[in-house]
User: Fold this.
Amino acid sequence: MSWWTTLIKQETTRSRVLAVTLLTLLTLAITFILPPVADSELAGGAAIAIVILGLSWLIGWSGQISLGNSGFMAVGAYAAGIWAHHHTTTPLLFTFVLAIVAGGLSGLVIAIPSTRLRGPYLAGMTLAFSAAITPLAQNFTSVTGGEGGLFLNSLVTPHWFTNLFSGPNAAIDANAQWTADLAVVVAGVMFFIMANLFHSRVGRAMRLVRDNEVAAELMGVHLSRTRTMAFVIAAAFAGLGGALYSLLEASVRPETFPLTLSITLLTLMVLGGIGTLSGAVLGGIIFSFSATLVAHVNSLTGVNPTSNVGANMQGIIFGVLLIVTMLFAPRGLVSVKNPLRRLFRARPLMRSAKEVH
Amino acid sequence: MHNIFGGLAQGVIYSLVALSLVIIWQSTHVLNFAQGAMGMFATYIGMTEIDRGLGYWWCVVLSVLVGMALGGATERVLIRPLYGKPEINPIVVMVGFLGVLEALAAAIWTSTTRNITEPFSQIYYQSHGHLVFLSPFVIFQILLAMGIMLTIAALFRFTKLGLQLRASALAPEVSRLLGVRVSRMLTIGWILSAGVGAIAAVIVASGSFGLFPTNMDGIFVAGFIAAAVGGLESPIGAVAGGLLIGLAEQFILAYWSPNVAPLGGIIILVVALMIRPQGLFSKNVSRRV
Amino acid sequence: MFTGRLRRSTTLLSVSALTLGMVSTGLLTNSASGASATPGVTKTSITIGASVPLSGVAASYAPVSGAANAVFKYIDSKGGVNGRKIKYIRLDDCYDLASYGLGCTAGASVTTLSQNQALVAQDHVFATVGSLGTAAEESVLSYLKQNGVPQLFVNSGSSAWDQPSKYPNLFGFQTSYQAEGKIFARYIKSKYAGQTVGFIGQNDDFGANGFLGLQDGGLNIASANQLSYNAADAITGSSSDIQADVATLQTNKVQVVVLDSVPGFTAGILTVAKLLGYSPTWVISNVGADPTSVNNVGEAGAITLDYFPAVTNNSDPWIPWLRKVLLADKTDFPTFTSSSVITGNELYGAGFAVAFAETLKAEGKTVTRAGFVKELKSITLATPSTTPLKYSSSNHQGLQGGVIATIAPNGSLAPVKALLTNTTVFTTGNDKKSPIKVSTKLSVSAIPSWMK
Assistant:
């Protein structure tokens, strides 16, 4: 993995384009080999990876603990979903832009009272936000479709793509794969954007504010504006991820974005590695194939998957993994090679712009 | 306001949870995300003994004892190693613990809701044909919660143990010099907090909501908000915050719109933190980092 | 650090090669799986599937698909249909509420969509048959339509399955909530003329359609007596609404209460009413009237709509036939004995299973999806239901009425002597203007000889 992150961390835009393009092409190629159901799972993971990118930005690079990302996902998903439900011929790009804008706006709204807060109060504020989203969506039935939600049309597979496939199940395989490939491409684009943001002035200012407020202010960086920006960016990414996820499910419903999703996102981000791009990829992969992995664990240990133990194995494994990771490898599974690296070390007064995680 | 009792009843639950969070925060500066889940788990262990013929009140006692033991063990095993580390670490660990407890509870006892044959009737009283939202169970709930809170207050105020606990939280070095076993105090803080949380969980499980692995999730959120509103430094603030949120929920339901009720907590939090970012009842002016 | 052009071009080359390799492998292996032209159909078998709640909040409906499976197994034991054995794959979707927990053992990330994807893309089913749940099945309408998979005999009373132009391969089975409401209204107006009527319904399509039907039937319900509860509350069990709702109706001296609620909530309402000493006439939607789950609350005497004749009806040949079928299926019904009560759930499952098998038989040796749907819309089905089961280009709903029945103390349903001395059957369409037809003829038909 470090090979690719080295590529992505490049200073020049050209090498970043190359790295992200290669990674995306490789993933696309993998979708051709995977069976359709795995393709669908991969697509979901791609959407989640986008959200984790934003979360990493917020928690890792801006240092603000947020548990509100499932809420931002819901805002983006509902904004896009409500529009798409009523205007079924909207081009996909428009839907995505809508989700990004809606997500970003909700990030702005939450940021306003939040940037003065620290630690537990910030966590509490964002927690309250994401906890309120599901009941809100359930209650405003006329707008959100209430409990049942709104149903969206499945993504339409273009003919030229379907023609690549043959056999009696051609259409089914093509449909499943098209959605997966679309999701991977979108994720690739967002990764590229994030890599650029990381190296931009915005990114550097963000890290400076996180590490040393005094130095930042001396350098002329506006503290609360930077922190607000972090929320906006994270929420915009989350909104897009949420909209993409809903498109994959062909429905936007309250129960897709419960509070526990915020916790799951946190888990995946930590397991993958806080504040790393490859961590978001790893988190997405874990999300995609967690069900399959758990099924393997069940069969290895001889547990019946439909028993109480088997059905909850995923929760148990995730929780234990999270605890163990945090106690022994706080930088995530990516860094297991170097378990003794400290998460935060004494900072010099000014940080060089080139330093990365 | 027609359902002031309902607001109070819910409010005291939030107060209990908020209080338990504040006790832990004051002693160890950790946000215990698994607070609700720990109470739920202890309640499962205690309440399933009813099936074997143990009386309700004994089960309550058992649940609280199990909860306390769980709290102490958690502090020793999971939190001890994290002192001095960045503040996000214990948060994440407790989040993981929350997941494990809920999944484990579902694995052991299934996630089907259990309704405990409560000792008090839940049928509301009626006066002149209108429902007064007060039932024997609601009375029990309010009285028990207030009793616990007063006991805790008395413990902290009037006992030597309470003095030692407060000293360990405020000035650990000095306390150590004076012979207070600070690390033991930290564990005791967790034990007390978990006991309070267990009581809250027992009450919730005995009510119409019932016992199921995720039953404390929403209540934990409200309790957390209450603690933040009151200021994490202040036990009185926690209690007040809980009551405030409970009453506000009913207020919104009655006078605004049921649709907006979920926003109650966040509205109060925003208003409170804008008035006083360190919490309404907090004494110190400087902000926590 | 990334150094050198050589390294860069090597990477480029190797990635491109890998990519091309994977893409072509994927495409080639795809075409190699050249089975028969119609998915799920071979010379000796036909594979169908369903997403049903086998665990979780709606697990009480599990015997519905269980009975269907028993029917298919029975038919298979006699050689199948035109030489093909019917393979029925049932996947647990927990009513699409897996994330709520509440007893679900399918796994927290399971959804109705993911289970249907497994059925379609992995098991290559010919069609979904008897999937259950309104919101659950609505969530896969688009997916199944896009992939050309017929969605047959959806277990739900929503009128959403009756959209012949938009979803030509989608078919329901049971009488719609709206039609049921119309029939209830007719019955209440004739039998309980002049009495005050109230309504408690679920805050979704179920309650809304049911209420609409009552209005279409001309029933007047004062707005103070029109109450609803959130479906989510019914699921999580919070019941603060129940007492308030029941107390309101009691205070307003409502004498007849129509309930459009799921079994769990129905039981809660009846329990509270009993404790408050309130005993109006209860008229309960078929889906909420599951006698076994509400029996201990004393629902005896409550009125509902039944699609099937009473199990005590001795002239009905289907009852002993179904008993034989269920006894033979020890996997799905391990504790069923010759004296067990056959419930409405089992009759329901048998009802649509029989319809599927008959249509398949009528289609003949060559089975295609288009051919099956065409046959379904023209065939006259022999069915255990009290009203005809007749699909057409304008009716994809399925059953269009039933018999007014009361719930007997032992939990079975007994027909009410309604307007006439014989058992009266009511039928009506989903449309508001569609009239209610009354008949005394139970349409219970003979069992086809090849099925006996």
About this structure: The first helix of chain A runs from residue 2 to 8. Residues 334-357 of chain A have pLDDT under 50 and may be disordered. The radius of gyration of chain A is 20 Å. The domain at 10-259 of chain A is CATH 1.10.3470 (ABC transporter involved in vitamin B12 uptake, BtuC).
